[in-house]
Amino acid sequence: MFTHSIPALFSREETREIVRLADDAQAAAGGLVGGLQHNDIRRAQIAWLDDTGSAAWVMERIVSAVAAANREHFDFAITEFGERLQVATYDESNAGHYDWHSDIGDGPIARRRKLTIVVQLTEPAGYQGGELQINLGSAMLSAERGIGDATLFASFMLHRVAPVSSGRRKSLTCWCHGPQFR
């Protein structure tokens, strides 16, 4: 299996602090790999956190959790966390979503992605729709929605954020890098 759940990776208070850090950062329209904008595929606002400054504690927790999960469940060659932490906001006002995609793509950064970790930052009652869904081939996995819960999966797996029909969903995403899959 190329997915793994980590319940309560962050506490409710810690998720509030992550959201505050994202609110302090300048949000922009979320794009696709390579920076392309395509609203039919992705409608979200994203903010990048300073993972060596104010959000260093967040990155430390992510690195520790991913290292443990990789040893136990994936055994991928991980060499670095080559991208900053991304907080995405999917809002009902624009039917926020991200259609089916994988996190591996063209370019020197995206082709080295091995694992993706997504952390739920919003209370489940705060929105409808917006499920993180991972295509397992013969089945589909909907990620846990508990606040602070993390879902880790191989970056080559197709996944999406279903349209938000009410409220607002926020999530934290980070990618782990290593030698390109062959």
From TrEMBL:
Keyword annotations for this protein, in alphabetical order, are: Dioxygenase, Iron, Metal-binding, Oxidoreductase, Vitamin C
A single GO molecular-function term is: oxidoreductase activity, acting on paired donors, with incorporation or reduction of molecular oxygen
Q: Where is the Rieske domain?
A: 159-182
Q: Which SMART domains match?
A: P4Hc
In what residue span(s) does the Fe2OG dioxygenase domain sit? 81-178
Q: Does the keyword DNA-binding apply?
A: no
In terms of Pfam families, this protein maps to: 2OG-FeII_Oxy_3
Q: Which cofactor does it need?
A: L-ascorbate
Record-given protein name = 2OG-Fe(II) oxygenase
Species this protein is from: Stappia indica
